[in-house]
Amino acid sequence: MTGPIEKRLADLGIVLPSPAAPAANYMPYVVSGLHLYISGQLPSDAAGALLKGRCGETLSVEEGQKAARLCAINLLAQAKAATGDLGRIARLVKLTGFVNSTPDFTDQPKVINGASDLMVEALGDKGRHARSAVGVAALPLGVAVEIEAIFELA
């Protein structure tokens, strides 16, 4: 059975990929009580290709937003793996976004909007969240964005 979140994703043309396996000694997610903590997700597309680059140098804000959107899709894939049913999500509590950017780039919040907007599109009001958007000098594998999430479960 498909719930309302899966229907919204389908209406957006989004098919959740298989969740990425951890690349080191950590868990992709942890459930503690009614909270689901998802480790930082990278911007990989359905084929597994990573969106790499640095905002303010090789990537525009719009390209950064595309990377953030991919991260959000991968966060939802991990949430589905953790819960078995996205209907268990009571709300998205917080996103923390890291943007690979030059020292003079100051549009990190605009970049992370790519993820925030998708979460609201997919989850409705349950997708409204607290957030941090931070510029960093480098990210793993040279990716443009990495985003982690905290969800509350029903």
From TrEMBL:
Q: Which Gene3D superfamilies match?
A: RutC-like
Q: Name one Pfam family in it.
A: YjgF_endoribonc
Q: Which CDD domains does this one have? A: YjgF_YER057c_UK114_like_1
Q: Which organism is it from?
A: Breoghania corrubedonensis
> Coiled-coil annotation: which residues?
none
List, for all copies, the residue spans of the domain called Endoribonuclease L-PSP/chorismate mutase-like. Answer: 6-142
Record protein name field? Enamine deaminase RidA (YjgF/YER057c/UK114 family)
Q: InterPro entries in the record, alphabetically?
A: Endoribo_LPSP/chorism_mut-like (IPR013813), RutC-like_sf (IPR035959)
